[in-house]
Amino acid sequence: MALGPVGDPTVELGPTEDQRMELGPVGDLTVGLGPTEDLRMGLGPVKDLTVGLSPTEDLRMGLGPVGDLTMGLGHREDLRMGLGPVGDLTVGLGHTEDLRMGLGPVGDLTVGLGPTEDLRMGSALWKI
Question: What is the gyration radius of the CA atoms in the chain, in angstroms?
Fold first, then answer.
């Protein structure tokens, strides 16, 4: 998985992407990490982990259109959309990161959509 320099990975999913290891063109979902990461959504620098979505992106979890969705890596990190406890969308990075979704530790990058759905980059497993 070509994540680039450690500490500054980027995952880009396009509208026709199979959402596995071979990531297509940017257009729908961009995940960036690091203080200098550009998310192409006008969000500017990020502190921990920011997910930028286009206004027409449907997360397949009933959220509807979003323009600025930010996720944190800490247990007490608040979501900036008033989502409350994590259980719908969680993005975590690191070997010891607890995703608060029952997914357990992750090795590279795990994106969870719902309590029983996960995308594990290490195994290229996608469940919807």
Answer: 13
